[in-house]
């Protein structure tokens, strides 16, 4: 049985950039629903019970069709949100350093170019979805956007940074101003955690 992970900081820790009401509803209600529905989807699939999220998401085509869409949607929702909480920081305006900083310069020329590419991915994602910074099989960084709760893990990629652009992630504070939400996201990125994940996959 999957369970809802606790936030690694207080619900109000990301103020003023992400408000406490959004954090509470997003974590306690939306994420909890993905966990509950994933567990429900696996009740009829004993062969897949006890597998970790990555294994489920990497093998969607092997999961029986009757449960596949639910595992894709709710397993993806659980995985995506679990990463999202970890790459946010109550310590504002951190900067990448070390191997991650070097890789950003290598693959995007500079930090500004990377942020522009990531922002474009977040803004151009039509409807609900996520923007991603992933590490590909060649250990290069790549920006992408995916719809709904699809995960880069299902494509053989390793996500290290993500931004939820479903309306539930920002509408209470920003209404239809996704651009302000995306701009303020950069104030609360936990670059130390992103760097740790990058080094883990490229070691």
Describe the structure using short key phrases:
203 residues; mainly alpha; Helix Hairpins; minor pseudopilin epsh fold; 2 domains; three-stranded antiparallel beta sheet; 3 strands; 10% strand
What does the model show?
The protein has 203 residues and is mainly alpha-helical. The protein has two domains: 20-86, Helix Hairpins; 98-202, 3-Layer(bab) Sandwich (minor pseudopilin epsh fold). It is 49% helix and 10% strand. The protein has eight helices and three strands; from the N terminus they run αααααβββααα. The chain has helices at residues 20-42, 53-58, 65-86, 98-108, 111-124, 171-174, 178-185, 191-202; strands at residues 129-135, 141-147, 158-164. The chain is globular and about 45 Å long.
Large-scale geometry: globular
Helix and strand run: HHHHHEEEHHH
> CATH superfamily assignment of the largest domain?
Iron/manganese superoxide dismutase, C-terminal domain
Query: What is the tally of beta strands?
Result: 3
Strand order, main sheet: write it out.
2-1-3
| Rounded mean pLDDT score | 98
């Amino acid at each position: 049985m999957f369970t809802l992970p606790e936030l690694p900081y207080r619900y109000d820790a990301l103020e003023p950039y992400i408000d406490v009401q959004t954090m509470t509803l997003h974590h306690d209600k939306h994420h909890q629903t993905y966990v509950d529905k994933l567990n429900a989807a696996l009740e009829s699939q004993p062969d897949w019970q006890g597998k970790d999220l990555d294994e489920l998401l990497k093998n969607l085509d092997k999961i029986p069709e009757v449960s596949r869409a639910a595992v894709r949607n709710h397993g993806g929702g659980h995985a995506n949100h679990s990463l999202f909480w970890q790459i946010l920081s109550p310590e504002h305006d951190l900067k990448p350093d070390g191997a991650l900083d070097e890789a950003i310069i290598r693959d995007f020329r500079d930090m500004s170019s990377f942020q522009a590419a990531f922002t474009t991915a977040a803004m151009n994602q039509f409807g609900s979805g996520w923007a991603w910074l992933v590490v590909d099989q060649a250990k290069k960084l790549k920006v992408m956007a995916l719809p709904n709760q699809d995960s880069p893990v299902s494509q053989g990629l390793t996500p290290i940074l993500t931004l939820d652009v479903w309306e539930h992630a920002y509408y209470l504070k920003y209404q239809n101003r996704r651009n302000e939400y995306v701009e303020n996201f950069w104030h609360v990125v936990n670059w130390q955690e992103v760097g740790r994940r990058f080094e883990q996959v490229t070691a």
